[in-house]
Write a structure and sequence with these properties.
Blueprint lengths: L3 H10 L12 E5 L2 E4 L4 E4 L2 H4 L8 H11 L13 H13 L6 E6 L2 H16 L3 E5 L8 H6 L17 E4 L10 H14 L6 E6 L13 H14 L2 E5 L24 E4 L10 E6 H4 L15 H16 L2 H18 L5 E7 L2 E6 L8 H13 L2 E2 L1 E3 L5 E4 L7 H15 L3
Parallel strand pairs: 3-13, 5-6, 5-7, 7-8, 8-9
Antiparallel strand pairs: 1-2, 2-3, 4-10, 9-10, 11-12, 12-15, 14-15
Helix pairs in contact: 3-10, 4-10, 7-8, 11-13
């Protein structure tokens, strides 16, 4: 049931470019449950687009933010620094998957983290070029849109984009792109479009998010590392959606320890619903920009930093990496066992899983994914679609979801899938 008054107000007050999935308005949330303005209850398998690995309003996050509010809310770290910024940086430096000593800077959004990673890479190498991949999503700012490898709806009408930015193919076995194919496209790019000596960084997602939850094969990541080492190029891992226990490891890059990135970007579930992003990397790389070259008025908000410290404690104490693996196994079993004829593939790691749907001709079918999403929404289960063709459903439930609630959601999902 559409709330016509609020719906009209939204259309009148906000631009159409801000697309909205749901026709209801939230008034309360707790862990994996939302309640709307009519008292209806929903199980949240979207988690604010992977922001709430620790659930809505985790008590420890709430208490940490309240305690910080009693002290101060803002000084701008570049003006008057505060200790919890240092504490969080130190804790991330110990755990981020890079070789050698690490340093960390904090920002606000994921796009801002990627923008600064590019700045750092260019400062460290003295080179301008950046290589990204097809299907990538790195943000909505001008530079991050330039890196993003999906046109509609993100890039349409917003060019020209930043340069020099190039795209190589990302491995996608289901659609016929092997690791060798992807590496061959990268080699061709470096032969015909830009010299390796002009490339500052290659940026990739260990598990593509918006692109459709494609996992970067270890052989591909290892080859990227070797290529970067051979030509003095920096490797940036965008862990904004895949980080903080979602994949079953703190970072998805931990699955390929022999091919560590030089820089890691993170945001989303870092701060349990508060606005915070970070760039961590090898200390000598992070030190390349001159003083004043990095920062921002709200970068490293004290309240968000406090929340993030609580999030790291929650992940460890509640063993959310292990829980992500267990829940992901149950979801995978449900998806594969539902008898869904349109299901082409289930892929991902841990609880960063997705299901891709094809039509009878074996072609990507966005209509099926949309129909399943709508059926689930009508019965109180929030799902998100993604993928270059819009034919993928991704599952992003809080890792703290109660077992009984998770089981009920899987039962509903299996019932719906059986009809397609």
């Amino acid at each position: 049931m559409i709330d016509s008054e609020l719906h009209t107000r939204r259309l009148n007050a906000t631009p159409r470019g801000v697309g909205v999935m749901c026709d209801f308005f939230v008034v309360k949330a707790e862990n994996a449950t939302l309640w709307d303005n009519h008292g209806r209850e929903y199980t949240d398998f979207s988690a604010g687009i992977a922001v709430l690995n620790t659930g809505h309003r985790h008590p420890d996050v709430i208490e940490a933010v309240k305690a910080q509010l009693d002290c101060f809310t803002h000084t701008a770290f570049q003006i008057v620094p505060y200790e919890n910024y240092l504490t969080l940086a130190e804790r991330l430096n110990q755990r981020v998957p890079v070789n050698g000593p690490a340093k960390t800077a904090f920002f606000s959004t994921g796009a801002e983290a990627v923008e600064n990673a590019v700045k750092i890479a260019r400062a460290a190498t003295g080179r301008p070029g950046i290589i990204a991949f097809t299907g990538a999503f790195h943000g909505r700012t001008l530079m991050t849109l330039s890196l993003t490898g999906k046109v509609t709806p993100y890039k349409e009408g917003f060019g020209p984009f930043a340069s020099p930015v190039y795209h190589a193919r990302y491995p996608d076995a289901l659609h016929g792109v092997s690791v060798d194919d992807a590496l061959a496209s990268l080699d061709a790019l470096l032969r015909s479009d830009i010299s390796p000596q002009q490339v500052a960084a290659i940026i990739y997602e260990p598990i593509q998010g918006e692109g459709g939850f494609y996992v970067a094969p270890p052989a591909f990541v290892q080859a990227l590392r070797q290529l970067c080492d051979r030509h003095g190029i920096l490797l940036i891992a965008d862990e904004i959606q895949s980080g903080f226990a979602r994949s079953g490891r703190l970072f998805a890059s931990d699955y390929v320890p022999e091919a560590k990135p030089d820089i890691v970007t993170m945001a989303k579930s870092l701060a349990g619903g508060m606005v915070l992003s970070a760039v961590s990397g090898r200390a000598e790389v992070m030190d390349a920009p001159q003083p004043g070259g990095l920062g921002g008025t709200y970068a490293g908000s004290p309240t968000a930093i406090a929340a993030a410290l609580a999030v790291l404690d929650i992940i460890d104490r509640e063993q959310l990496c292990d829980r992500a693996l267990r829940l992901g196994d149950r979801l995978r079993e449900t998806l594969l066992g539902a008898g869904c004829r349109a299901l082409a593939e289930v892929r991902g790691r841990g609880s960063m899983l997705a299901a891709e749907f094809h039509n009878e001709a074996g072609k990507p079918c966005a209509a099926t994914a949309s129909a399943i999403q709508q059926r689930a929404l009508e019965q109180g289960l929030l799902l998100l679609t993604c993928g270059v063709h819009g034919n993928v459903i991704r599952f992003l439930y809080p890792l703290t979801i109660p077992d009984a609630q998770f089981s009920a959601a899987l039962s509903l999902l299996a019932t719906i899938l059986a009809d397609y």
